[in-house]
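A reminder from the course coordinator: this example appears on the midterm review sheet, so study it carefully.

Given structure:
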């Protein structure tokens, strides 16, 4: 695509419609805007605009559409696949100042927010009002707009589902600059094609989310966790389908390996309650009565011991809760701090194949001489597997990384899995999506992209690469 390089006239126009102090260029743009959390994809925008409302987003998109200037939308920049990186330069719209909670509707059990609201702030706000927003991605400083754009999942997905299940309505600026309202506060909707669901998980390639109506639930009155050590990772993960089959209604079922826990201990400078076993399952239970929660966790504990668990630790004090969950929340940063560079595989496989897949990553680590720690959501099959560069030279790292990625995604396909469970495709994982989906599905996705964005100016080069086909 022949995108327009921005010139002084373009910048002058933007400063005429946006307060000049919110329009940054050149060295005025921090290098942080050139990459996301992992940093493997780097490219700087030509202009950074800190937008404040829907009207500003619409005005910028209308101008960009007319001039054929690429536009990328960015929230907190916590992505892991280069999804919010301006790989073709152009305009970056920073939505972090659009961070207002606009309405709490108790009658309809919804909350209306702007896209820059942080997940942790939303969770705290609704809990103060005795309500509950269930999606629980690991990065609590991510924005709601980013969560919706990637259909983020998180630890509570095994019981409550993912972000898509809690989005009732969206206000969206499409690439032409038009503003559309999709869905609303209604519970049911069979009114034509679901453009709302197309927008969720589209990674900012189809429209700019400027407002969201989110579904809430009553806040569970009791929550409790179990930390269960096993001798081997295989034994730990193989217990998960049995736990789910027993219908104990766990809110979260996480798996972790000892070496990952040790990274978190070093990173946080705090001790984990137990590090004497090779693998652990962490389960959470919630409910509205002590009897309900106690019954479910008791059945789960007994079953784990029957299946070979070494012990069952009750995480029922604030000290233990902080120790366990702070470590779990720090796994990504801890692994990142342990190596010179890393990349991630966010694959999802059927739960029945989780143990086989993790065992396969151990085999790959041994064969390649590469360190490959992992953790993830055993309850829904979404695995977070990290390739660590350590002391490899650049050429060796790139070759081995590519080889290991290809083998992991091929194994996932063999198991009936998919490229991404919650982090998305972005720029970094496009080739694996193409290999997985095949020509027909890719043509359908490209057709959707063309229908929304005929000039391919909104977050170009992500998910589908029209100009490269």
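Designed residues:
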């Amino acid at each position: 695509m022949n995108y327009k390089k921005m010139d002084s006239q373009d910048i002058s126009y933007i400063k005429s419609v946006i307060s000049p102090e919110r329009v940054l260029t050149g060295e005025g743009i921090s290098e942080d805007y050139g990459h996301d959390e992992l940093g493997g994809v780097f490219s700087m925008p030509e202009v950074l605009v800190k937008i404040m409302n829907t009207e500003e987003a619409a005005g910028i998109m209308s101008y960009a559409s007319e001039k054929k200037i690429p536009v990328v939308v960015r929230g907190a920049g916590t992505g892991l696949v280069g999804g919010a990186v301006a790989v073709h330069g152009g305009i970056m719209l920073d939505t972090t100042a659009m961070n207002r909670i606009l309405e709490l509707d108790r009658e309809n059990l919804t909350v209306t927010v702007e896209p820059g609201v942080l997940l942790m702030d939303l969770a705290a706000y609704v809990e103060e009002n005795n309500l509950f927003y269930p999606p629980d991605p690991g990065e609590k400083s991510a924005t709601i707009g980013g969560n919706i754009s990637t259909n983020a999942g998180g630890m509570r997905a095994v019981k409550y589902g993912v972000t898509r299940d809690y989005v009732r309505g969206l206000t969206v600026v499409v690439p032409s600059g038009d503003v559309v309202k999709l869905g609303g506060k209604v519970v049911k909707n069979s009114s034509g094609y679901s453009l709302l669901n197309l927008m969720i998980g589209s990674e900012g390639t189809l429209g700019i989310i400027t407002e969201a109506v989110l579904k809430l639930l009553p806040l569970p009155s009791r929550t409790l966790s179990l930390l269960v050590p096993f001798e081997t990772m295989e034994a730990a993960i193989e217990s998960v389908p049995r736990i789910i089959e027993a219908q104990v209604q766990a809110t979260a079922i996480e798996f972790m390996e000892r070496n990952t826990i040790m990274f978190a201990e070093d990173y946080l400078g705090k001790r984990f309650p137990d590090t004497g076993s090779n693998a652990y399952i962490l389960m959470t239970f919630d409910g509205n009565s002590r009897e309900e929660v106690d019954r479910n966790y008791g059945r789960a504990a007994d079953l784990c011991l029957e299946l070979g668990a070494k012990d069952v630790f009750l995480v029922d004090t604030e000290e233990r809760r902080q120790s366990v969950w702070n470590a779990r929340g720090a796994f990504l940063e801890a692994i990142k701090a342990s190596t010179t560079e890393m990349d991630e595989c966010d694959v999802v496989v059927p739960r029945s194949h989780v143990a086989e897949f993790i065992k396969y990553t151990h085999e790959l680590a041994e064969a390649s001489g590469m360190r490959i720690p992992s953790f993830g959501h055993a309850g829904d099959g979404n695995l977070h597997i990290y390739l660590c560069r350590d002391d490899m030279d650049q050429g060796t790292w790139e070759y081995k990384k590519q080889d290991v990625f290809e083998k992991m995604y091929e194994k996932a396909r063999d198991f009936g899995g998919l490229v991404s469970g919650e982090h998305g495709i972005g720029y970094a994982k496009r080739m694996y999506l193409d290999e997985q989906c095949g020509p027909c599905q890719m043509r359908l996705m490209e057709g959707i992209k063309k229908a929304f964005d005929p000039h391919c100016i909104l977050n170009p080069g992500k998910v589908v690469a029209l100009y490269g086909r």
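The mean pLDDT is 95. The domain at 101-218 is CATH 3.30.465.10 (Uridine Diphospho-n-acetylenolpyruvylglucosamine Reductase; domain 3).
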